[in-house]
Amino acid sequence: MNPAQIIIKKRDRKPLSHKEIKYFISSFVKGEVENYQMSTMLMAILLNGMNEDEIYWLTKEYINSGVTLTFPESQGRCIDKHSTGGVGDKLSLMIGPLAAECGVMVPMISGRGLGHTGGTLDKLESIPGYQTQISLDRFQEIVRENNFAIIGQSDNVVPADRKIYALRDVTGTIESIPLITASIMSKKIASGIDGLVIDLKVGNGAFIGTIERANQLAESMSKIAKDFDKKIIINFTDMNAPLGRYIGNSVEVIEAIEFLKGNMEPDLKEVTYKLVVDMLILAGISENFSKAEVMIDRAIESGNALERFRKGIELQNGNPVVVDNYSLLPQPKHTKEIYAHHAGYIKNIDSKNIGYALIEVKAGRKHVDDTIDHAAGLKLLKKVGDRVSKGEKIAELYYDNDLGNKAAKNIENCFEYSENTITTTSRLLGTYK
């Protein structure tokens, strides 16, 4: 087959056959289709979409590009969670140990930062020694021992998506529903899950801007789950403002640890509890929200969820003492205070542009091979609904390069004010039916 002819076919809005998709994906993994050819194909898919059959075959070929794990002893309890990307989204760091302590097996294969959003692997790699790239045998051993582990994609599990994921980040093709569907579902299915809970972000700071688009993606993922005989629950959550108070890598690790110690921001608690409850329901461990919530409270109050997180760090060669001593995490050289330029109530915080501003101080990447500054980040001292005076400190920026002033100015402009009281609303926008 000729890669150019397949690209032209998708460019001209014609559906690709299974053979064409299989050839294009397998040849790309083997290096026979070039990056520039795959980049062109990704843009054609973004612009022209894919039908249900194409998305199914794309997902299947992603999975077939590597090995598939199994946890036969899970007895239906192997449940994962996936968030579609947000700003300040450190949910996996809390949900993994919480669900594990409640009896769920959680084999998480996570990704790095994508576009303006952070990545779970980048956060975990803030922890000295923490290894996100470990053998699959070791990954399975850790899941069996501690009920959860979080690793990155390897050369063996969905290598096609690993390579394509990196290209999407730098080619403006992140938002494609077929590509998002294949990327998420292939990784989760290949990791050996029985079911999946999706946190589908909607709004300014998400890749999916509207509830209409969110429903389209939810429908696409639900069909793939059904095709592969996997249970699924999809929640829509609001990403029009950052989640929690910290945005970055090491700072989000700290916020996650504090959460497991019982110090919870209300919006983080609301979303985290809902997702863990859904995991317990899919696993058959609890049949309703109230009973599951009691189990989660007990996991936190006993300190057992925190200890699972600590053990998870140790099992993946990280320094578990960071749970007690945050100074062992990367520390920024500079802190810049950001002040309100208006008096009133904070009406909106532009999540997306905060994410891009933080890329300037290397909390995220512009290019595939960019180095992350794990200490760079932002603390929100004020959130939506808070009343502020002009000149009052609203945030702190942590950085280590000469672009701190520019980033701080951009972040300052991300705050929108109102003279009228702002009523905050639930982060939970509903569940896909």
In short:
It contains 16 helices and 13 strands. With 433 residues, it is of the alpha/beta class.
Q: How would you explain this protein's 3D organization?
A:
With 433 residues, this protein is of the alpha/beta class. It has three domains: 3-49, Transferase, Pyrimidine Nucleoside Phosphorylase, Chain A, domain 3 (Up-down Bundle), CATH 1.20.970; 72-323, Pyrimidine Nucleoside Phosphorylase, Chain A, domain 2 (3-Layer(aba) Sandwich); 332-418, Aldehyde Oxidoreductase, domain 3 (Alpha-Beta Complex), CATH 3.90.1170. Helices cover 44% and strands 15% of the residues. It has 16 helices and 13 strands. The chain has helices spanning 3-11, 18-29, 35-48, 52-64, 91-101, 120-124, 136-146, 159-171, 177-190, 211-227, 250-260, 266-282, 289-301, 304-315, 351-360, 404-412; strands spanning 79-83, 106-110, 148-152, 195-202, 231-238, 246-248, 334-339, 344-349, 377-380, 387-388, 393-399, 415-418, 428-431. The strands form four sheets. A four-stranded mixed sheet has the order 1-4-5-13, sandwiched between helices. Helix 1 packs parallel to helix 3 (35-48), helix 5 (91-101) packs across helix 12 and helix 5 crosses helix 14 (304-315). It is globular and about 65 Å long. The mean pLDDT is 95.
